[in-house]
Amino acid sequence: MNLGMELEYFHLAVWFDRKTLHAMVQALVEAGVSVTWKESPEQFHLLVNTTDGRSDWKMQRLNGSYKLHIAGIPVNDSRVALVLYHFVERAKGHAMIKVTFEECVLLKQIQYGEVIRIVELKGAEKKVIYEKFCNVTMDQVIAAMKRRDSEERIPVLRLELNYELATLYDAMQAKDQSQMKHSTERLKQLRREMLLLEA
């Protein structure tokens, strides 16, 4: 499959759990990509043989997660590009992706696995094609700025986020749809509050 384009990932930051990391390796193999890996208690080292050479992905192991952080990586092999894109979304990672066509360049910004902005560059012209709507109101921003207890609230908020994530995980394991929906909504509220406090 030829995408007719070049992809380059910038500021790629993805945190994989062990299951998702193994799923990504399996997806690469199933796509026909040759991969080899070495694992140590501190690191997961993945060598990906692409059509344009060998990519070296080193992931640091932190608290049971594996962090893939790459400042810049060109991916001309469409198989690798598609698998990597899928797992950036699946693992709720961050990336800036530069897609080069014959006459233009698209810059795609991904945060928490979602595209938040797409910019098209044609010569000297710059055009925003898509920008995710921010649903934080000005009243919420003003209220957050007036709060003096933000230094005390942020650590508590982090604990609440961790607790709600654990609750969501348990609900997913138990296939409890009602609790999953409730936890997802609560996490959205907590994330919005965290964004306001850290602004």
Tell me what the structure shows:
A hairpin with a 2-residue loop joins β3 and β4. 41% of the residues lie in helices and 38% in strands. The protein has 199 residues and is α+β, with helices and mostly antiparallel strands. The radius of gyration is 20 Å and the shape is globular. A 9-stranded antiparallel beta sheet has the order 2-3-4-5-1-6-7-8-9, with helices on one face. α1 runs antiparallel to α2 and α4 packs antiparallel against α5. The longest helix is centred in the last third of the chain and has 25 residues.
Summarize this, please?
By secondary structure, the chain is an alpha+beta fold.
Poorly predicted runs: none
Question: How many beta-strand elements?
Answer: 9
Spatial sequence of strands, sheet with the most strands: 2-3-4-5-1-6-7-8-9
Apparent shape: globular
Q: Helices and strands: which structural class?
A: alpha+beta
Strand content: 35-45%
Q: Treating each run of at least 4 consecutive H or I residues as one helix, how many helices?
A: 5
The profile of the biggest β sheet is:
9 strands, antiparallel
Properties at a glance:
199 residues; alpha+beta; 9-stranded antiparallel β-sheet; 5 helices; 9 strands; 41% helix; globular
Q: Which secondary structure elements does this structure contain, and how are they paired or packed?
A:
Elements: E1 6-16, H1 18-30, E2 34-39, E3 43-50, E4 53-62, E5 65-75, H2 78-90, E6 94-100, E7 105-111, E8 114-122, E9 125-131, H3 138-146, H4 150-174, H5 177-198
Antiparallel strand pairs: 1-5, 1-6, 2-3, 3-4, 4-5, 6-7, 7-8, 8-9
Helix pairs in contact: 1-2, 4-5
